[in-house]
UniProtKB/TrEMBL annotation:
It comes from the Eukaryota. One of its GO terms (cellular component) is plasma membrane. This is MMEL1 protein. Residues 14-220 form the Peptidase M13 N-terminal domain.
Length: 220
């Protein structure tokens, strides 16, 4: 209550300028940081919470629950930048192997991988191991017809870009679309180089153009 009163401006007439009356104290005491496009009480609470979480995650393990232990391990792994640099792309290459490799980053995928490749199996691995939904989204949620139970829902997943507007509209959307395609091409080239596969820029561009075409069809 004290914080709400502090954020008000009781000297303003609410009948003439209700916004100044309700938020004038806040406007006088806060400036939007250069790193933010907005600044509200929720942003302040989020910043305060991150400081608290940082302190918790950096404390030593003292008989923590398994969930806390996992959170601390994840935090430490992200902070260990020297090991991240040392491992380089190896974690990504391992992940690609789990999901059946990537044709554009493989010398002979059609011969070595495609005969035993199963879309159903790979989609389930992407979901269970990496929490990534591709083509189909599947989740458990409350039953709309009976809130006392949960059921399996099947839905469409999110697109590669934030919305279908990015695939069809011009202006800034088109610039993002071009950058998105270039990003895919760059990543494919990097992985081919890390796997010591011969350079073939035209092949990479053709394959990524097909990916973009497929995503556009899905968005449509």
């Amino acid at each position: 209550a004290a914080r709400i009163i502090q954020n008000m401006d009781p000297t303003a007439d609410p009948c003439k300028d209700f916004y100044q009356y309700a938020c004038g104290g806040w406007l006088n005491r806060h400036v939007i940081p250069e790193t933010s496009s907005r600044y509200s009480i929720f942003d302040i609470l989020r910043d305060e919470l991150e400081i608290i979480l940082k302190g918790v995650l950096e404390t030593s393990d003292q008989g923590d629950r398994e969930a806390f232990q996992k959170a601390k391990i994840l935090y430490k792994s992200c902070m260990n930048e020297s090991l991240i640099e040392q491992r380089d792309s190896s974690p990504l290459l391992e992940a690609l192997t789990m999901v059946g490799d990537w044709p554009v980053a493989s010398a002979d995928w059609n011969k070595t991988k495609e005969p035993t490749w199963s879309m159903e199996e790979k989609l389930s691995i992407m979901n269970s191991r990496f929490n990534k939904r591709v083509l189909i989204d599947m989740f458990v949620w409350n039953d709309d017809r009976d809130s006392s139970r949960h059921i399996i829902y099947i839905d469409q997943p999110s697109l590669g870009m934030p919305s279908r507007d990015y695939y069809f509209n011009g202006g800034n959307y088109q610039r993002v679309r071009e950058a998105y395609l270039q990003f895919m091409i760059t990543i494919a080239k990097m992985i081919r180089e890390d796997k010591n596969i011969s350079k073939d820029d035209s092949f990479v561009q053709e394959e990524m153009a097909k990916v973009m075409e497929l995503e556009t069809e899905i968005a449509n």
